[in-house]
Every structure is written in structure tokens, then in C-alpha cells.
Amino acid sequence: FSGLSEFNIGDTLVDPADPRPLDPISVEEPTMSISIGVNKSPFAGKAGKLLTSRNIRERLEKELETNVALQLKDTGDADSFQVYGRGLLHLTVLIETMRREGFELMIGCPKVIEQEIEGARCEPFELVDVELPEEYSGSVISMLGERNGNMLEMGSVSPEGIVSLQYEVPSRAMAGVKTKLMSATRGLAVMTTTFAGYKPWAGDFDKRDRGNLLSHEKGTATGHGLKNAQERGSLFAAPGDEVYENQIVGIHQRAGDLKVNVCRQKQLTNMRSAGADEKTNLSPPTPITLEEAVEYIEDSEFVEVTPAAIRMGKVGKK
To answer: Cβ(173)–Cβ(127) under 8 Å?
Structure first.
């Protein structure tokens, strides 16, 4: 609008002689927050061009002008900002946009925003609708039940063998559900979620039952090192990937973290050729997207986001 310097969603343009504004539009409050800060990993500055806290602040403040559901707050750390949004997808779309613009970022574990309603501790819930083949329904019911989900409805089996489930699940419990659901149903499930409002706190639950495989040192991952590591779990890293100490390179097959040396070189002798390492049989690494990485991490872990790569790491792990 020409001549108007500042205006917000819900404002009404009126005739000064007869000002009758419309009822303002209420913007839904955020339900989840995440920390976005300067990349401080050993590989910081190698891929991006926008690296400083000033760059990040200016970009986030610019986003506030058009993204009305977003909120921004300072933290005790000058290099980190707390960003509030309407769910994890809302926040990860912003992070992915910034990554493509050339930013390097360090992302913290997402947290739900609690409220106190009539003296009771409450948290946001999601209404989850799932359609899947009946043969996989048992594993999905078990998975959502372990995350304190409450089944509202279970439809009858269709002639095609499809069953529909409807659950009410705490928003914090939905982290990682999409990936596990696709694995449990071989990609045949269809899931949709909608905000169901704030309800009483659902209690604690275990987010992960397995630990991480952490890189023992900084270097280049080798086939020989990864072959030994894959005996301990599934891997995110591939031969030739640059890794650093305490980077999460895989999922441990047991509870608890384990350090592995994925940079180990094969000791060569006159009986072993240098090219023999290329013949090592390795399982393909598990590809991980930004949304999956942010869902995966817990407290004391982070996601490093650069235009060239998405990595996960452990903070202060010695």
C-alpha cells in the first residue's frame, strides 16, 4: 500500500470520517520452538557464504514481516536465537529455505510450548489419521501407543485390505513417527496430522531405544573403517565423506552411544593391494533429510545445516 509504512494482519483500512474497523483476525499461537544459531562445527565456513549471527538475525527478522505465525526471541547466547512456529514442518521449511540461500546453521532439539490452563499443565496434541494395509496395523498401533497416543477410532477393513486409524498424540511424540511409520509399513501408509489443541500433559515416554555411533576422530571415512562400524549398527556415512569427532555417523544397535573409528585405514602389505579396499562389501548408507535429522536428535545433540551437507553431532561428548 502506498503511503502506509507499517501495517499488520488484521488491520482495517477505514474512512477517517467514518472509522468502522472489522473484527481483527487472530493468528494462531506457536506450538513448538527450535534454536537456530551460528555453525560452530569443525567444518564451519567451508560451504556457506552467510555465516554470522548478524546475517541470521537479519534473515529471521525479514521472515517475520511475511510469516505471521513465526516468533523470534533472543537467548542467553549472542550466537543463537529461539524461533517459535506452528509445528516442526513450519520451522524446517524456513531452515531449508535459508540453507538454499547459502546459510550455515546449527539447529538444536525442537521443544513443544507448554501452557497452564486452569492450573493444569497442558501441551499441544495432534490429530493423526493413518490409512495402511491391515497386516501392518499391529506394529503402528504399538508404536503410537508407546508414545502415549490415544486411539479415537479404528475403521473396518476395506475390500482392498486397507484399515484407517485415528489417534490423538502429543505433538512432542510425533518426532520421528513419519520415518518409523514408513519403515514399519514398507512405505504403504498414508498419514495426515492436524492440530487438536492443548490437552493435559500426557506423561514421559522413551523417544529412542537405541544410541548413536559417534566418529572417533576427524578425517575421511574409509570403506575399511565403515565395514567394521556397520557391524555395530546402521550408518549415515559413506566412503569418502568428511567427518569430525563426535559426529553422529550411524545408529547403534543397542542403547547408549558408541565411538567408532570410521577413518581407519587398512594396513597394506606386499600381500594386499591398495585397491582391495574398494571391494569391501558395505550396506548403502541411510539417507537422511533435514526434517528427519531434526526429528531424530535429542537434548545435547545438534543438526549442522550447510548448502552442501546435513550432519548431526553430539555436544560436549568426550
So the answer is: no
